[in-house]
Amino acid sequence: MEQKGKHKEETFLQHPVLFIVVLVFGFVLMDPFEIGPVGGIEFRPVKHDIAPYKEVMASWPRDNKSRLGNGKLEFVDEVFGPESLEFDGFGRGPYTGLADGRIVRWMGEDIGWETFAILCARGVDSTTSKQWKHEKWCGRPLGLRFHKDSGDLYIADAYYGLLVVGPGGGLATPLATHVEGKQILFANDLDIHKNGSIFFTDTSRKYNRVVTYRRLLSRYHFFILLEGETTGRILRYDPPTKTTHVVLDGLAFPNGIQLSKDQSFLLFTETSNCRHFPFSFFRSFKLMKYWVEGPRAGTTELVAHLPGFPDNVRINDKGQFWVAIDCCRTQAQEILVHNPWMRSLYFRLPIKMKILARIMGMKMYTVISLFNENGEIVEVLEDRKGVVMKLVSEVREVEGKLWIGTVAHNHIATLSYP
């Protein structure tokens, strides 16, 4: 028996390639030095059911002329991370939130950009790409909305929750920082109902936008995306009672939100990560509807499956909806979405996220799409070469022009439309 056991051991050691494969496999499982993309966190990927790749991509209309690439770059190196764009009741703007925590507004060629509001008194003026490392100290304003009657500007901030600042600007006042006794970790976008209620998205109860683990440097919040966790919510703030309530729970990275023209329903996107990270793999790719009023009040329904990673939704004067999409999903993604165990291994590989993205076939470009109230596609504009923008956050249609924001670049884009 001893001879037989010895023979087995010698046989195994005589295959160095197999031995190395076993060692590497064990290293990947353990990731002792925490050098993989998910090193140092409790990573528990889950399975998501998404529409088949071929079904969605075969029916999605394409812009063969790549018309969005004809847009104009505005304010290059003057703003960094202008995700949401707003205009006040006097037509001034755009107003936008920056990576350094400020809300700024454009005052014309003679004056330029001026600071309109800040979220904390220790804010700094910066438009550098590295500002994200410090954003949690003085906020990261994402969604912006003006109240049409009062002129107040409401702000969804990734760290400070829901805030408001008066028509004259200044230091913003926190409104909703907790719900059901727990802190709101990742407020993302908002809209204002005619009765004064504020609907806003809370992307995750587990992760905020930027996190720090142990001795490691700050990282983007792409863990939500990679893991596919579904702790996101839609919340509602009630100004008269100053209380915050949960409207919908169990969502996969709820992101943009927009009430319909008659305010009977709202549209929201499920992105399943901060669509604010350029290498997003596992999003839900959905545009959803939640009924606020009428016989279907309190119910949800699917509006459309999308070809890529949706962000904000904004309405035009006709009651149609512009959806910002970072395109496009790949067949390789679909395999990992349906096999969480593969994701667990793949993202423990000691390889940079950018390289893993390329292996997955990710080549990001911008798509913006216009939907009617029935979820039918009215328009699709693409920028396949990334001439104007490689990553898009929001589209606003104002007086024959599209204003296009991005959380990842140092400019705003415009395009005449129609």
Automatic annotation (TrEMBL):
Name the major location.
other
Gene3D superfamilies recorded for this chain? TolB, C-terminal domain
Q: Which residues form the signal peptide?
A: none
Naturally occurring in which organism (per UniProt): Gossypium anomalum
Protein name (database record): Strictosidine synthase conserved region domain-containing protein
Mark the transmembrane ranges. Answer: 12-30
Q: Which residues form the Strictosidine synthase conserved region domain?
A: 188-275
Q: Record's InterPro entries? A: 6-blade_b-propeller_TolB-like, Strictosidine_synth_cons-reg
